[in-house]
Amino acid sequence: MRLDKGQIALSFLLQITASRGIRLDMPPSANSVDDEALQIRKGQQGDPMALAALRARCQQALSNILLARGASRTEAEDLLADLWADCVPGPGERPSLLEKFSGKCSIQGWLATVATNRWVDLKRKQARRVELDGGGDNSNADPIAEMPAFPVPAKEATLVRMLRESLQAGFALCPGDAMVCLRLVYLHGLSQREVMRLLGWSEAKVSRFLTRAMEQIEKVTMAELKKRDPLLELTWQDFVDLCETHDVGFL
What we know:
Layout: H1 2-15, H2 30-44, H3 48-68, H4 73-86, H5 107-133, H6 143-146, H7 157-172, H8 176-187, H9 192-199, H10 203-228, H11 236-245
């Protein structure tokens, strides 16, 4: 049964396209908000003192977050060096990266999300390079058999476990009848019309039932992820991308 749920999860994650972020940030004090807002405005304008102060305040925390999520120390240093460079307005009226900050969360939380997304993009590119190089020079070789497995370092275990356990929490609260419908559609490949005939429902009812079940899984999964890592500001699509990038076990 556990294997079936994993297979359903994989099909579900690869097919669902809805994206919904969940924010549970505690509001900071008014004074800290004002100081931070002023520092960010100056940083957007390229003020070196403001940018240096922002880097001094966030650098270590961002580095620790990347390391905890599986980045190597070299990856973390390189990613953060590029991130801070992008915070400086460039030539040709290139705006500061900080211009994209909406102010709906803390600047450290936002920078942590930007850095995490860049690390995920880096891992995707590395995985694609492995796929492209896997066939070697032998055109007759089976590219799947020749492709080396993309290694998951031991220190990525924290991120992988967080993804897996959050998704498990989402499926654990899914009602039994909903799991049956999800299995029929995403595991066994039945159409909604075939499920309609099997259950004696209308096609619209089957569609609504599946949509509600998937929305519940998404909501519970994202809430569990936020509870485990409050600084991680991911959308559902970000979560799906992370699960595709890493071997999370449950999938």
